[in-house]
Amino acid sequence: MSRSVFRIVAIPFMAVVFGVLIGALLIVSQGGSPAEAYKALLVGGLGDSDAVLRTLQKATPLIFGGLAVAFAFKAGMFNIGGQGQLLVGAVFAAGVGFGIDGLPVLIHLPAALIVGAVAGALWGGIAGTLKATTGAHEVIVTIMLNFVAGNLTDWLAANPWKDNSGSNIVARTPLVENSATIPTIGAVPVGFLLAVAVSVACWLVLERTSYGFEVRSVGHNRHAAQYSGMKVGWIMSSTMAVSGMLAGLGGAVESLGVDGRFEAGVNVGLGFEGITIALLARANPLGVIPAALLVGLMEAGAARMQYKSDVAPELIDVIQALILFFVAAPIIIRWLLRMRHDNSEQLQLGAGWGKS
Amino acid sequence: MTETLLGARKVRKEFPGVLANDDISISLQPGRILALLGENGAGKSTLVNILFGMYRPDEGHVIIKDEIVDLRGPDEAISRGIGMVHQHFQLVPPMRVVENIVLGAEPTRRGLVDLDEARTRVIALSERYGLEVDPDALVEDLPVGMQQRVEILKALYRDADVLILDEPTGVLTPQEADHLLGVLRELTETGLGIVFITHKLREVLAIADDIVVLRNGQVVGETRPSDTDESDLAEMMVGRNVMLQVEKSVSRPGDPVLEVKELEVKDDRGQIALDSLSFEVRAGEILGVAGVEGNGQRELVEAITGLRAPSVGVMKIEGEELTGESPRQITKKGVAHIPEDREKHGVVAIYSLAENTILNRYHRKPFSIRGILRRDVIRSHAQDVVDEFDVRTPSISVPASSLSGGNKQKLIVGREFSDDIKLLIAAQPTRGIDIGAIEFIHRRILEQRDKGAAVLLVSAELDEILGLSDRIAVLYDGKIMDVVDAQEANREQIGLLMAGITD
Ligand SMILES: Nc1ncnc2c1ncn2[C@@H]1O[C@H](COP(=O)(O)OP(=O)(O)OP(=O)(O)O)[C@@H](O)[C@H]1O
Ligand SMILES: [Mg+2]
């Protein structure tokens, strides 16, 4: 058992190590000092309670985005539409957050979160249902829905829900009410706690419930699932809805806990980082937490790194891309480490990505 | 002169908890056929996988043409003249036959694949060895027997001196199997050596030059067809006396359990696969469905189990309408189904054995309550299935993919038998299973019958049909040619009916 755990963790871990090492080479090639830069990065992400708060805040939507991709992946589907689902979740949660006042926190905040989650679920559910009923590939559909969501939320933020206070010309909603704002406890945002709880819940659902069993069965062997009497179409649409819900929650948490409003363009890219996180976590909902923390830490510390050692924050993107590259191509790591690999010990990352 | 074309010297291979190969030495000489025999899980596939470079031995060596080699992978084995036909074909279904054969070794002209040249070579090859195929057919449209030919041609195209075949006849009809054996014999005349795995003793005696018997990862016997016979071999494999034919009492059929009327079913391509079929299976009887594969058997089983919607017709179980019900509803009515294709429908390869034993009953008590899986119950149930059906495995936590082929089959049969069954649909229930386990499974099927279940047995093995059935329906081209009483049936008569000939 411990041996197989080691095998599962080894690749992501080494991917991070190699990503950081190559990042160091890049810093040197630019005449910088990797030690200084990485130290600044760490201090910026962990140095004091403000830094920790930043890291946790950055990590929170990443957890949701990673969960969204991981969950869909368990049913053998590639949800590339996290971005769109996150946007609709963010805008509708903000809508409830600023649009209603006079509610107590215990009602207003959950209501806003739930509306964001439902919006994401509907957005993801569309792709799942189209796949189940017409066979439309979820990758294509979710990419298209990303554009629709982008334009829809831009329009909402620029027109009916625009913040008309002062001389604002930015496409953004008004700030959400205090009663809809996610509080922080010390350096820990409550949204992060929620994300951790949801990760655990996802793991429990997948591993311990009969619904999760159906999801995994469909993901690993659709024919056997059908033979076993599972409703494959329903599992696919519901899984995409759950996946969308997770991304939508991520958007809601972003609006209600980090930005305090929805602003067009601010969340761009967050949904896609979910793919990196899920891959790094090898689609394990519990693995998503450390993966998101790592990326969150890098993003939180990037500003300090630039200011202290003059290394461009884009380096972080490069390192992330490298990590993703090594995770996706584990054969390179095996080769670099001369890890013996033989067909009898095949590591399975589950059913193939993007299979129709 | 080469002594050993392909061999193993003191090979050892251990999987977590299993010593699959223990100090095995074998040697194949040019122009000879070596048959590997042994129980399910004895280590046959592991051994040939080592010879083909798929696995590395923990100890010992592979020998190719009298030379000790350290194979880095199948590519190296191929380049040294070893060809292997896996039980699971490694073909690209949407591509044409000729493309599949030359894939990876394409003749090129000015950097482009020269398909004309490829076709010429493929045709020459297939004519030379009597392995006719249509080079332009799509692989996905071919029946299994043809796909296997493509696999063999693929190896020959790469100038193989040795051909390894892992249970090649398991998926073939008896006619196809006989043809294959003839082809193999012919191949050896050019000096090619063949390693051949099978559970069918008849084939071993008919074709092998040398026989090696494995048990628990060790060589327990080496012999030649002239020095042995079926019961001898069976005993060597299993370590005890095996009944090659189960005894069965006379059936006492009761009321009809399954009634099928005017059933019409289309196949994947929309052609009529079953043409107004009517029959019934009664409680306490076994109806055997004989027929050359591809005459509608698959569609029949899929229709009854709810996996394929019939276009016309009525199916009833104990008078209740079955037509249009979902597989879940049908299972609920007491229908158990041993699927024909165990890899596709029968198991989820990366699931543990425990998860696989609840594949179609995870949603029911006692395996889950209010949607929560009960792991203790599931585990103890799985342990029961594994013990009772003698599934050879170090634990119920290992993935099904680590089981040997026959042990996977036993697991599926065990899962399907662990219920009160009204109707048992057994499609190729003993495919890939060793003779000791066949005896056991046949007994269990008869036991179900005697407990009052109706059994629909679909099998390509005529011996199995004749040995188990009470009545035999012969399917030809989607129609039932005749239903005969098993006691009055004989091989020739059934064989003629299977070929569509009535007198
Ligand atoms: N990849 C693997 N991982 C773990 N155990 C394995 C693996 N492959 C085979 N085994 C185990 O090694 C033993 C030998 O398996 P093998 O497949 O060689 O048997 P076999 O003789 O081919 O049986 P069968 O007749 O059923 O095909 C079995 O106990 C099996 O469970
Ligand atoms: Mg085998």
What's the quick description here?
The complex is a heterodimer of chains A (356) and B (503). With 356 residues, chain A is mainly alpha-helical.
**Sheet/helix structural class of chain B:** alpha/beta
CATH class of the largest domain in chain B: Alpha Beta
Order the strands across the largest sheet of chain B as they lie in space. 6-9-10-3-11-12
Strand order of the largest sheet of chain A: 1-2
Tally of contiguous helical segments of chain B: 17
User: Average pLDDT of chain A, to the nearest integer?
Assistant: 88
How far apart, in Å, are the first and last alpha carbons of chain B? 56 Å
Q: Which CATH architecture of the largest domain in chain B is right?
A: 3-Layer(aba) Sandwich
- Strand % of chain B is 25-35%
Q: Report the β-strand fraction of chain A as a percent range.
A: under 5%
The CATH homologous superfamily of the largest domain in chain B is named: P-loop containing nucleotide triphosphate hydrolases
Number of strands of chain B: 24
Average of pLDDT of chain B: 91
Number of domains of chain B: 3
Give me the secondary-structure category of chain A: mainly alpha
* Subunit arrangement of the protein: heterodimer
Radius of gyration of chain A: 21 Å
Give the helix tally of chain A. Answer: 14
Order of helices and strands of chain A: HHHHHHEEHHHHHHHH
The CATH topology label of the largest domain in chain B is Rossmann fold
Helix content of chain B: 25-40%
